[in-house]
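Fold this sequence, please.
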Amino acid sequence: MKRFLLIGTLFVLFLIEGTVFQVFAPEHYGFDFQLIPRFVTVIVVMIGMIMSPAYGVIYGIGFGLLHDLIYTDLVGVYMFGISVAAYIIGYLSKVFQLNWFTVLILGLLGFSLVEFYVYELFSLINVTDLSFHSFFYDRYLPSLILNGVFLLIVYYPVKQLLEELSESRRQENQAKRRNFL
């Protein structure tokens, strides 16, 4: 049941990113910067850190593909970016003792990997003409702060959910091994 709670939460966050959050977008109110919520990316990177890199890749493929199909003309950009970021950060997290600070730093590193990858790819194929200066100061830094604050807010409940899911999967695998032997 908790597995469906995780998928449902990610789906609701996906909807919030593209619909509800756009009502509060600062560019609609005359500000020069953009806030790009990547809440699903942040949670998928946390899945890679807390559960395992393999689960991060699976969720990254699913929700990245959903993002590609709905928001972009190129299928596979976000699917690849989110999956690779979850994989890299998932394995990198094995080196550190995970607490709120390391999860924040690694989560923002995963967010940054996706953002820079997408920006560079879109610049390379001329999908965007946004200068790097504008991207960095008007889009990336405000979005980094937004997603960092989001990660701090959801850290404890998401960590608890992911640890419970991880433990229940571990118990299921042990029971299957005992029944097999």
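The chain has one domain: 36-164. The chain has six helices and no strands.
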